[in-house]
User: What shape does this take?
Amino acid sequence: MSADGAAVRHRVVVVGGGFGGLFAARRLRRTAVDVTLVDRSANHVFQPMLYQFATGVVPAATIAPPHRSIFRRIKNVRVLLAEVVGFDLDRREVRARAPDGGELTLPYDSVIVAAGFRTSYFGHDEFAPYAPGMKTIDEAATVGRRIFGAFEVAETCENPEERRAWLTFAIVGAGPTGVELAGQVRQAAAHTLRREFRTIDPSSARVLLFDGGEKPLATFGDHLSERATRELEKMGVELHMGCLATAIDDQGLDVRTADGTVTRHEARTVVWTAGVSASPLGRMLAAASGAPADRAGRVEVLPDCTLPGHPEVFVIGDLMSLNHLPGVAEVAMQSGLHAARTIRYRLERRETKPFHYVDMGSMAYIGRRHAVVDFRGLKLSGFLGWLMWLAIHLTFLTGFMNRFTALFNWLTALTGTRRVRVFDVSNVTPAPGADVAHRAATTRPRSL
Ligand SMILES: Cc1cc2nc3c(=O)[nH]c(=O)nc-3n(C[C@H](O)[C@H](O)[C@H](O)COP(=O)(O)OP(=O)(O)OC[C@H]3O[C@@H](n4cnc5c(N)ncnc54)[C@H](O)[C@@H]3O)c2cc1C
Assistant: This one.
């Protein structure tokens, strides 16, 4: 009972409203608990479609609905915009910073931490200004401005070499994000922009895809990886496998092959899809509970996704390390549902179970009406793969209107239409200010 005589309900704090946090909080709607979902972003980002936002297919609103709107009808969930900065596991409190900088303390009976991953340059943070990542809406917006901005700069270039460099796009990392982005840039160049420019030929744009491994989509298995390779090559993407980026600047990048040879590529647009590491909250929880953290900063959890000695603390999704499960949306969603179910079962004094992951497979959209899909052992590619990709993405997008808008945009993109392009002269170049001034100083006056 509280001081005013009202029954105090079990308090659940959910840290992060990505796939894991969203599924956990929604599943708790019919449980007698009070949920506080705290996220430093006002929006739930559907990360697998960030590349579609970056390449002008879908608007940000379609893939990033506000948390408040998602939970508007779920009365036992309160949404807070704040950045979590620490935990007091003994006092059962989450510490957060409010948008105005003020400190917040959020007491809990159970906490579900789903703070996910962030872009990592593997110790090369100096790459960041020149090679944005693809983890947040802001990063994807930057990538989109640079890609479409590069065509604009090329349109005003007289020097053929300079123009060529602006029409060369380097993507580092040939996992699903890199592969999907590479396909979309080629598609935008060859089908959308081809009709829109008068001086340059956008369809001549080169897209170079680099990866330290032997093949793209290596985790998808040989069959789908080979199909993806063939499809990418057909679309004109140049694959540079077995290549590690060793330097990136505003003019291009250096890559090193296994035999030590370093090659320079002039590419004014470079995108980093090669690495991610866990939110720093992972190491904080590991240190506070004595649980080990792996190299990526993920916390090793017990089979029920809780911390040793703290059954009330769940770590789920990308932030948890358990049985080598991959950092994919399905793991996050299922572990979120598991945490919510465990909390409910405990309140109902029912027996709880360890987390059991059901692998639904993986997929990647390569280009026009082509996707590779491994769905519960069923391997599809080409048009059938695309239909399956479409159905699965429509199922998991949040909100009816977003599904409708996405479908409309996907179908119009098939005709080459990409209307989601918003930028101006101030944000098309790699580094703000200094580099623009540098280029202005080194570029001859031109008469167009
Ligand atoms: C570009 C891209 C493409 C992908 N494609 C696929 C795909 O095709 N298929 C697939 O299965 N998976 C894909 N993934 C992986 C998938 O998106 C992740 O596995 C999934 O989002 C993990 O869910 P999560 O809830 O653990 O973390 P996230 O979805 O990353 O959510 C973490 C949330 O925590 C919030 N947060 C972080 N730190 C704090 C803090 N200190 N305080 C408050 N809030 C915080 C963030 O704002 C975010 O909302 C992709 C990922 C990316 C980036």
About this structure: The longest strand covers residues 33-39. The two ends are 77 Å apart (CA to CA). Residues 137-155 form the longest helix (19 residues). The chain is about 35% helix and 25% strand.
